[in-house]
C-alpha cells in the first residue's frame, strides 16, 4: 500500500487540466514530495518521472506502478541531464517548502516548532545554522532583505551577530525568539515576526531561486513541441521569475532574468501562455487548505520553436 500523503496538494485539479496528460505520455513531476501530483497524473494513464532532492520522500513512492513511475533523487534543475531534448510531454513544478517539511520539527524549517536549525531540503551542504553563525553582518542582512523581503534586515542581523558572540545558534525557536526581540515582539500581528527571516534563510540554504531559473531553462529544452509546463509558486520572488520567464519566452517582454539564457534577437516564441494571468485557488480549496492562499499557477505550451538554449 502507498503511504497516504501528509499534506494536500495545491491546485491539483488545475495542474491536471493545464498538463492535460494522456495515456502513453511522459510527465516530469519535478517536486515529487509526497506524490500528490504524481498520483493524479498516473490516474490519467500517463507515465511519471519524479524528481526530489529530499531522500526522505522515497517512502511515498512505495506502491506506485513500477511500469509507469520512477523516482530520481536529484535537483529538478538537473532534468536535462536525465532526458534528451524534446523528449517529454509535460513538466510540473511546485516551488518552495512543503507542508510536510514544515510540520517535521527535525527538518528545522518551522519557527513554531523547536528543532535543529537545518532547513536543507537535501542532506548535504551548509545549514541555516552555518549561515546565521558564520556570515558577516552585511551578507546576513542581504539574505534577509533580498530573499526574505524583510525591511528590518539590518536590525535583525545586528541582533543575531551580537547574540552569536555569546552563544551560537543551534535551534529554531532560539532564532525565532531573537528575531522577535529585534522587531519588538508580535504586537498583535497576524504574521509571526520571524516569517520573512526564516523564508530568506531557507531560500539561501537551498539556492531556491537559482534552482528555479535553471529548472525553467531545462524544461524549455526537454519539452516536446506541444508539451506543457505548469509551475506553482507561493511568494512574489518565485512568481516574478516564472512570470518573467514565460512572458519573455512568449515574446511579450524584452528580457527576463539576467541569470537565465536570453532569447536571441528575433527568435520565435518558445512558449505560448495557457492563461494571461496566474491561476489562483478557489474558495472551496481555501476552505479545506488555507495554506494554499498564496499559491499561484502559471502554465504554458512549448511551441515548435527550435532549441537554442545552451545548458553546458
How would you explain this protein's 3D organization?
It is a single chain. The chain is an alpha/beta fold and 312 residues long. It has twelve helices and seven strands. The protein has helices at 12-19, 36-42, 79-82, 99-103, 128-134, 137-146, 153-166, 172-182, 195-206, 208-222, 236-249, 283-288; strands spanning 26-29, 47-51, 69-72, 88-94, 223-233, 271-273, 296-302. The protein has a seven-stranded mixed beta sheet, sandwiched between helices. Helix 6 (137-146) crosses helix 9. Mean pLDDT is 88; it is low at 1-5.
What attributes does this structure have?
globular, 7 strands, 12 helices, seven-stranded mixed sheet, alpha/beta, 312 residues
Q: In total, how many beta strands?
A: 7
Q: Would you list the SSEs in sequence order as H and E?
A: HEHEEHEHHHHHHHEHEHE
- What is the percent of helical residues? 25-40%
Straight-line N-to-C gap: 41 Å
* Number of helical regions: 12
Radius of gyration: 20 Å
Q: Order of strands across the biggest sheet?
A: 3-2-1-4-5-7-6
Q: Report the oligomer.
A: single chain
**Percent of residues in beta strands:** 5-15%
**Class of secondary structure makeup:** alpha/beta
Name the average pLDDT. Answer: 88
**Based on CA inertia axes, which overall geometry fits?**
globular
In the predicted model, the low-confidence regions spanning at least 5 consecutive residues are 1-5
How is the biggest beta sheet arranged? 7 strands, mixed
